[in-house]
Design a protein that fits this description.
The structure holds three protein chains of three kinds. Chain A is 84% helix and 0% strand. By secondary structure, chain A is mainly α. Chain A has one domain. Chain B is mostly helical. Chain B folds into two domains: 51 residues, no CATH class; 113 residues, no CATH class. Helix content of chain B is 57%, strand content 10%. Chain B has a three-stranded antiparallel beta sheet. Chain C starts with a helix and ends with a helix. Chain C contains four helices and no strands. Classes of the chains: A mainly alpha, B mainly alpha, C mainly alpha. Chains A and C meet through α1, α2 and α3 of A and α1, α2 and α3 of C.
């Protein structure tokens, strides 16, 4: 279904702009939790972008990678939060 | 034993859904079905005590029908409202935040997890911490109403509407 | 024709809410309000983006390609993963921020602060 190819590419362009804005927050953020929020947002947007990639190029492997990326980024967020909280694991 | 069967069957269904379109035996190939069966037996024997706790309440299909109705109906509408609300606050910059305590009076862990997730995705609220003894929730509220602060702890009707009633029907 | 229009509208809504999340992250004053923007808007936007991809997969399935079914089912799994993990991660970050001592800016009321202080006095 190549008729949507250009639409998907434009969406990807806008999504990469969103990632740039979140990265500004990661660089500027005054405290550590601010940076974690920025990283979390980047992760979710990357998952959406991978789903769009998979639909645009008709490759299911991108969406499989998106599922695994979602679960792994969730675990990493939990561990960073646990580290910021202090205390024992 | 029942816990083992439930975990194995759920794992096998998930594996089959993820490998559709691989062969000619229905939608699957024989190798995928065999590998899936062996892997789900291993996972079922390892994870049965973690996946299923002490009760089998969620086996009742009526609860799942109510759950799907809840997600499609009031939850999705509240989520749409939440996003318009956040858009309004992003553009105007009007905020009046605070952290309030609510006691939704739910007993099970599953119910309180579902309520916390629902609160996070609905208008103007974000769950921050939970009191594990009494199942009280601490909620960050982006636009605190003065009327709600007259009584402590705050009535949950101001924060999350009728969600605790739905969740009591689903999880307890 | 109408199908194409639906896909365009769904994609536009999804991308708009993701953009809103980025702007919200830049404009809000503290961690908790930024979490409001970063969690709700990206989850809602992802629902619409995944919805458009699911519709495309279902139409491919309808016109006789088995690739379409695989595309739709795997996208549903990705959507479920996002819906389950995103609010839980936000909850963990908010709790860690409060325990590491970041107070909400311009707060009217902070019940949790009083509560933790009381517990420390008891010890």
């Amino acid at each position: 279904m190549m008729e949507f190819f250009n639409t998907f590419l434009i969406s990807l362009l806008v999504l990469s702009f969103c990632i740039l804005m979140a990265l500004i927050r990661v660089i500027r953020g005054p405290t550590a939790p601010d940076r974690v929020v920025g990283i979390d947002t980047v992760n979710t947007i990357v998952i959406s972008a991978m789903v769009i990639f998979g639909a645009a190029f008709q490759e299911v492997i991108y969406i499989d990678v998106a599922i695994v990326y979602a679960l792994l980024s969730y675990i990493s967020t939990l561990f960073i939060a646990k580290y910021l909280e202090g205390g024992d694991f | 034993m029942l816990a083992f069967v439930i975990t194995t069957v759920l794992c096998f269904i998930t594996y089959l859904l993820l490998t559709t379109g691989s062969g000619t035996l229905g939608l699957w190939s024989l190798e995928e079905i065999l590998v899936g069966a062996i892997l789900s037996l291993i996972v079922g024997s390892l994870a049965r005590t973690i996946f299923v706790k002490d009760n089998f309440r969620m086996l009742n299909p009526v609860r799942w029908i109510i759950f799907i109705a809840y997600v499609i109906g009031p939850f999705f509408v509240a989520m749409a409202k939440a996003n318009v609300d956040v858009a309004y606050r992003v553009i105007t910059g009007k905020i009046n935040p605070g952290i309030v305590k609510i006691s939704p009076d739910l007993k099970t862990d599953f119910g309180i997890t579902m309520l916390a997730n629902s609160i996070t995705l609905t208008p103007g609220t974000l769950s921050v911490d939970v009191d594990e003894d009494k199942n009280d929730l601490y909620v960050h509220w982006i636009n605190v109403k003065k009327k709600a602060l007259e009584k402590k702890p705050v009535n949950y009707r101001y924060v999350c509407g009728k969600f605790p009633n739905w969740i009591r029907r689903i999880a307890e | 024709m109408i199908f194409n229009l639906i896909i365009y509208i769904l994609l536009a809504i999804g991308v708009f809410f993701n953009l809103l999340a980025g702007v919200g992250l830049l404009r809000f004053p503290d961690v908790y309000t930024r979490l409001h923007a970063g969690t709700k808007c990206t989850t809602f936007g992802s629902i619409f983006i995944c919805g458009s991809v699911i519709l495309i997969g279902l139409r491919m399935w309808y016109t006789g390609s088995t690739d379409g079914s695989v595309l739709a089912i795997h996208t549903i799994f990705a959507l479920v993963a996002i819906l389950l993990t995103n609010p839980t991660g936000a909850h963990a970050i908010a709790r860690a921020a409060h325990r590491s001592g970041v107070a909400p800016v311009r707060a009217v009321v902070d019940d949790l602060q009083n509560n933790t202080l009381k517990k420390e006095e008891e010890k």
